Amino acid sequence: MKRKLNEDDIPEPVAGDEVVTTQTPSKPSFGSFGLDARLLQAVTREKFSAPTPVQSKTIPLALNGQDVLARAKTGSGKTLAYLLPVLHSILLRKESKKSAKHTSALILVPTKELATQVTATLQAFTSFCSQAIRSENITRAEDDAVTKSRLAEVPDVVVATPSRAHLWVNNQILKLQELKHLVIDEADLVLSYGYEEDLQSLASILPSGVQTIMMSATLRTETSTLTSLFCKSGEPTILDLSAEEAAEKPTLSQYIVRTAEEDKFLLIYAIFKLQLIKGKVIVFVADVDRCYRVKLFLEQFGIRACVLNAELPVNSRLHTVDQFNKGLYDLIIAADEAEVVGEDTPRRKKRKAIPEEEEAGEDNDARHVEGGEEKDEDQPESTPVRAARGNNKEFGVSRGIDFRRVSCVLNFDLPTTAKSYTHRVGRTARGGQMGMALSFYVPKELYRKHKPTTILQCANDEAVLSKIKTRQEERGAKIEEWTFDMAKLEAFRYRFTDALRSVTRIAVREARTRELKHELINSEKLKRHFEENPEDLRHLRHDRESHAVRQQAHLRHVPDYLLPEGGKRAMKKDVGFVGIRKDEVHGKGKKGGRMGKGRTAMRKGKGMDPLKSLNMRGRGKK
């Protein structure tokens, strides 16, 4: 039967035809979850258009009161996935019945930095219901009386590390008899940070019927231990988003560079001086000494960087991250304390993989002449550095901290495990943005060929890299070789060698001590002063020069004859029009030129031989 065509030349259906309509399933929105209007208003203000996979699956389950264990990669929105349902439940209970104030939700995190980040997110999403919901972060470095007074107000949500929560529960200041929600963020890290006893004590105190939500980047034995401790009503609903993450279009490009130990410094100099990588960069190094060694090396070329490690006060670290996220700094050199330095006990456990005889031999062999000066083993470490070292437990750069709009993660020193690598590179390519990870590794045949730059960690680079590749292939990611012609950098080698020789062990120790003293002085007590004197804030910049090594002005500029082909475009900067003003002759100004003869004579005589212009009778006398 001939059919009539419509205006689009498509046959129209006739009576008796079976019409089959296919509808593409609509993506969930925050409004489809039935959340409180005040929370949705905050979501709109924060410009979250659609929920991420972990949010779209976790929020409905949490709103139904189920226990949830969710595994999702870093930067996938896990914080919002548990905050929105918890806040909605608190608002719902407050509207239905008015009872005495009590703490409804306890959020446990492994680090103080993550506690601050979660608290900031809480404040942002409760801005339209701040009168109904109060939250407190009890991990801050403050007097116990201040914390006690804040908890006496009975906040609805408390953010804490397990040790701090256990302390105030034992003191009967933090009361959990009416607790409804328990959240454990970065659950796979909480036990590995040494909180097992605190968690066991908290589990015995919690009332029955508490909803437990656990968020993790990996599903390991630690999460099973936490499940048995806190999910007493039954097994939680496990959400593993590996399949969804594998189906997503990759936003992270991963590259490796095979290099000698000393060439790491040459490469990082070329990368930043020739602007081969643009945007904000996080450079991960092995330990605190390495932080300052790289910082002092780059400073000699006019490349300024911030340092982030566990020695610095918590407020200083948080201030550095906040200003980095705001775009004030472009380069951070970070020591991943949780994986490398950490506390003494975990560190010894990790290094047991190296035989004790070999380890002792390496340590003895490391007492070499570095930068022309012999290491002073007998000299004790400075008091400020020694005093700050013991407080590493609740610090970790590669996990939890929300670095925003990071273009590249540069592993100057390869991490010790594939897991640590995954968390490091998770600092970039967050929220659907593109990012790059670049890692240097030292092959065995080049290890210990340049003793001044040798560290023990590089001995296992090839074995660790093999595990990293295997782990990334399981996730559908690929690590490629970064092709770089080292021959083009030979012209820079003499400059690099001169700068590296200046960074001695003594200079590194002085820079560490000076940085720590400076940051301790710039404490929160000076906040009011800088509010009244904002021009003084320039003294608080975290990327200021250390002046621990001799400054060589010629190293800050790259001569044209050293630049490779195409390098001049990267170095060229348009400064615009610069007007040249002709200096006025003294005495012929608009005011008639009343200047003293003595001052004029001194200016005219500037640069003359002082012995020839010597006047024995005195100035102004002949």
TrEMBL record:
Subcellular location: Nucleus
Domain DEAD-box RNA helicase Q: 28-56
InterPro entries recorded: DEAD/DEAH_box_helicase_dom (IPR011545), DEAD_box_RNA_helicase (IPR050079), Helicase_ATP-bd (IPR014001), Helicase_C-like (IPR001650), P-loop_NTPase (IPR027417), RNA_helicase_DEAD_Q_motif (IPR014014)
GO cellular component, one term: cytosol
Any one GO molecular-function label of the UniProt entry: RNA helicase activity
Enzyme class: hydrolase
Region (Disordered), start-end ranges: 1-28, 344-391, 585-622
Keywords: ATP-binding, Helicase, Hydrolase, Nucleotide-binding, Nucleus, Ribosome biogenesis, RNA-binding
Keyword Oxidoreductase recorded: no
Keyword set includes Hydrolase: yes
EC number: 3.6.4.13
Ranges annotated as biased composition (Basic residues): 588-605
Short motif (Q motif): ranges: 28-56
Catalytic activity: ATP + H2O = ADP + phosphate + H(+)
Domain Helicase ATP-binding: start-end pairs: 59-237
Domain Helicase C-terminal: 251-490
One GO-annotated biological process of the protein: ribosome biogenesis
Pfam family, one: DEAD
Known function: ATP-binding RNA helicase involved in the biogenesis of 60S ribosomal subunits and is required for the normal formation of 25S and 5.8S rRNAs.
Family that this chain belongs to: Belongs to the DEAD box helicase family. DDX56/DBP9 subfamily.
UniProt-recorded name of the protein: RNA helicase
UniProt source species: Neohortaea acidophila
